[in-house]
Amino acid sequence: IQISNDTLKEHLKKTFGFSQFRGEQEAIIQNTLQGNNSFVLMPTGAGKSLCYQLPAIVMPGTAIVISPLIALMKNQVDQMIAFGVNAQFLNSSLTRSEMNRVKNEVLSGDVKLLYIAPESLNKQENLNFLQQANISFVAIDEAHCISEWGHDFRPEYRKIRAIIESVDEKLPIIALTATATPKVQLDIQKTLNLEDAKVFKSSFNRKNLYYEIRSKKDIDKQLIRYIKSHSGKAGIIYCLSRKRVEEIADLLHVNGIKALPYHAGLDPAIRMANQESFLNEEVEVMVATIAFGMGIDKPDVRFVIHYDAPKSLEGYYQETGRAGRDSLDGTCILFYTYDDILKLDKFNKDKAVSEKENAKLLLAEMVYYANLGVCRRKQLLNYFGEYMAENCGFCDNCLHPTPTFKAEREVVLVLQA
Ligand code: ADP
Ligand code: MG
């Protein structure tokens, strides 16, 4: 359909309260309106949701948004409803009668955005329902879930393209992700049959994030001191294990810091409640495993701390990306010790050979990142295939230069272990 850029801007202002599009948002929206497929690669916090929310509002019919997590859907639906847009979701958290109500509302034409979990999409009854509905286009959020090379692989994502085609093969598709390693990108385009899609890729430089690596010596003291000196600010602390999450949440609690745990072992109701408390600012700190965060839109997270080393630079980049989504400064501190790398390497011991080799390479990248005296941002962007000519001036290595620690020996150790 034809909609002028001026009209789009009016909708942007009226519904979302924003006066300018960010980056390529407008071109991406126009591409969907014109009935073309799009592949959007933008870092976390860049504003990908708007690229399907706005066209959903202006196009007749209901846009389908495929989204991997219940929490993520709820977050976005709540937001859209607050903006006065009729959005609904279909997932396993609904009772049968709630599902029927949602479907009837969609069929009556009142719903602008319908969020669906990929496993719900697979059900025959839902397929029949979608075939009857008036669908404007399909958005596939967190599209990297389709790739085994990504960090959140969901097997159900592999079936998406076939399902969309059985609903209506002419529907425009927009796939979105913050994962931009060339391997994952290729995998997504191939599996979704999106080789023809227009690719919109923006820089992965998060200029407002400060990257820092610290030694793990006296980590608990360092942690408490940091949080206390940033009291009133929201932050996330990522730990490797559920047990550690519980321990650190307790530790902070007894030190008078308002913190709650989040991990997949918690009762879903408690997990949801803890997340809500964090989003509503009843607590300041979320202590979590990486189960927490994908797609969560809390704009004012001021720090992300890694208590343990992450499995890959990709994961590290995604997790730190949850800081500073409002464009104000965010601090990313990684507490590093080589022992963590060895521990992570041990977790892989039962994997297939090729998988194990891959995991080792990712760990080796992590070791280099933690030890090199080179601008951290340069290293991170390099990992995503971007080249930065100048040092950033906003990371620990730029502000407090230290000689590069020759990490070769450690890297070799990981690779040969
Ligand atoms: P992501 O790319 O990670 O999915 P989101 O879609 O969650 O990012 O958007 C991140 C934040 O940016 C949100 O708070 C959103 O409201 C805000 N945002 C998106 N587009 C604009 C815009 N054009 N102007 C101002 N803020 C925007
Ligand atoms: Mg998003």
UniProtKB/TrEMBL annotation:
Annotated TM spans: none
Residues covered by the Helicase ATP-binding domain: 29-198
Keywords assigned by UniProt, alphabetized: ATP-binding, DNA damage, DNA repair, DNA-binding, Helicase, Hydrolase, Isomerase, Metal-binding, Nucleotide-binding
Top-level taxon: Bacteria
Cofactor needs: Mg(2+); Zn(2+)
Reactions mediated catalytically: Couples ATP hydrolysis with the unwinding of duplex DNA by translocating in the 3'-5' direction
Protein EC: 5.6.2.4
BP GO terms, sorted: DNA recombination; DNA repair; DNA replication
Helicase C-terminal domain sequence ranges: 219-367
GO molecular function: 3'-5' DNA helicase activity; ATP binding; DNA binding; four-way junction helicase activity; hydrolase activity; metal ion binding
GO cellular component: bacterial nucleoid; cytoplasm; replisome
Family of the protein in this entry: Belongs to the helicase family. RecQ subfamily.
Protein name (record): ATP-dependent DNA helicase RecQ
Residues of the full protein shown: 3 to 419 of 773
